[in-house]
Amino acid sequence: MTGAASITQEERDKKIREYLVYMENVTVRFGKVVALRDVNFSVKKNEVVGLLGDNGAGKSTLIKALNGYHQVDGGEIYFNGERTNFQSPRDARDVGIETAYQDLALVNLMSISRNFFLGRELVMGNRFFKFLDKRKMDEVAAHSLAEVGLRNIREMHETVNFLSGGERQAIAIGRASYFGAKLLILDEPTAALSVAETEWVLRLVSEAKEKGLSVIIITHNAYEAYEVSDRFVVLQHGKNYADLKREETNAKELIEVIAGRK
Question: Rounded to two decimals, what is the model's pTM?
Fold first, then answer.
């Protein structure tokens, strides 16, 4: 990626206005360990970006700096044209950043619809007595999940612990679409999935873009990233290593780049 210092102030301001995500010279430290050093990262509106790199490259740290899970020690982060200082993932979620981590952060003993609305539950009643509108939540969750292909799922009031990995990813993607997220972040979304479920999840990523979302997909799999991404950002040892458009590379070359051989 072109370093922030190599562009004019006018170009920088234009990118901040036009890009959904603009991260400049981001540094994150954990004690004496520098996890990210002067990293630049951007996502255009309605763009799918594959965030690639080997274990320890800094991918998850970068995303957690973006969504407020980690506070940065240097650099600036802009979202939708505004400089941000999210104090928690909840703050980021409130402005349209939906993150699905590898473990998906679903509550296994909670119902499908409760997991769909997690933190945004519908209530009914008056100011003195409120209770969950479970019927409405079940209806909304069922309709939204059917739109992403979960039509044969069991009842919405059943718990999520029986769902497959692909079905869990569908909940995250359906939730992002329903609540009007602008950015969907998927951390290793196809890890441990079957071939059929992997194809389904990648199709959902493409459909999310068609609906106007921007997507960041974090993965080790260059072939899967290449299938759905418009651009690829590769990190190595907490630093920028490569920024490639899809038409500039191929899946085999991406593997070489991730390995640092190209």
Answer: 0.88
Q: In the numeric block, which tokens belong to residue 149?
A: 């292909």
Q: Which residue has the tokens 């759905």?
A: 228
Over residues 101-121, the pLDDT tens digits come to 765 567 888 888 998 888 888
Helix (H) or strand (E) holding 91: helix 89-94
Assess contact for 164 and 80: CB atoms under 8 A. no
Strands, sheet with 183-187, edge to edge from the N-terminal-most edge strand: 97-100, 183-187, 214-218, 48-52, 231-236, 239-245
Q: Report the distance separating Cα 207 and Cα 201, nearest Å.
A: 10
Confirm if 67 and 99 have CB atoms less than 8 A apart: yes
CA dist., res. 51 & res. 233, Å (int):
5
Burial class (CB in 10 A: 0-12, 13-18, 19+), 175: buried
Measured in degrees and rounded to the nearest 5, phi and psi for residue 202 equal -65, -35
Q: How far is the C-alpha of 172 from the C-alpha of 205, rounded, in Å?
A: 11
The dihedral through the CA atoms of 160, 224, 50, 48 has a sign that is: negative
Integer Cα distance of 244 and 101 in angstroms: 24
- 190-243 pLDDT, tens digit per residue, is 887 889 889 988 998 998 899 899 999 998 889 999 999 999 999 999 999 999
Categorise residue 80: left if φ over 0, alpha if ψ from -120 to 50, beta otherwise.
Answer: left
Cα–Cα distance measured from residue 8 to residue 196, given in angstroms and rounded to the nearest whole number = 47
Three-state DSSP class for residue 57: coil
